[in-house]
Amino acid sequence: MKIWVDADACPGVIKEILFRAAERAEIAMTLVANHAMRIPPSRFIQLVTVSSGFDVADNEIVRRAAPGDLVITADIPLASEVIDKGALALNPRGELYTEHNIKSILNMRDFMDTMRASGVQTGGPAAIGQSEKQAFGNQLDRLITKHHKR
Predict the structure, then answer these.
(1) C-alpha to C-alpha distances, 14 to 66, 116, 117, nearest whole angstrom
(2) How many whole angstroms separate alpha carbon 27 and alpha carbon 44?
(3) Which of 46, 20, 16, 14 is nearest to 33 (CA)?
(4) Which of 17, 30, 68, 144 is least buried, going by the fewest C-beta atoms within 10 A?
(5) CB-CB neighbours of 42 under 10 Å
């Protein structure tokens, strides 16, 4: 398993959890972003910088992700694409996207987009709190442990 991070939108607190997990479990992790960012020196962590543009980072993750890999993203269409390739997708709030739930989540996203386009103010997501950080860390630990048992 390799971990891919949609790093442009990934909150810093979640990146910190991921950095520690990659080191502890000795799992290769690649952050994909359209701008430079600091990452800790590690033989397990790398940054791939892509050109800016609509979905350039997402397309790079889809191109590189393989079955059994884990993709960290809040981007639901990206999650859907990597799930179709046999990868796992985990939201920074700890929600695991699966082949069983991704279509309904994608439908809800599209519905909310339609509502916003018609002028309805839906507001954005709340800041990531302690419970979401804990949910993310717990789900990440479960996935890494499951991978290491193989």
Answers:
(1) 22, 28, 30
(2) 6
(3) 46
(4) 68
(5) 13
Judge contact between 58 and 6, C-beta under 8 A.
yes
Sign, Cα dihedral of 134, 92, 123, 80: negative
Distance CA 124, CA 62 (A): 26
Query: Three-class SS string for 39-93?
Result: CCCCCCEEEEECCCCCCHHHHHHHHHCCCCCEEECCCHHHHHHHHHCCCEEECCC
Q: What is the pLDDT of residues 24-69, one digit of tens each?
A: 999 999 999 999 999 999 999 999 999 998 899 999 999 999 999 9
| CA distances for 22 relative to 1, 3, 125, 127, 144, angstroms | 11, 8, 27, 24, 9
Cα end-to-end distance, the chain, whole Å: 10
pLDDT digits (tens, 9 = 90+) for 44-55: 999 999 999 889
CA distance 122 to 120: 6
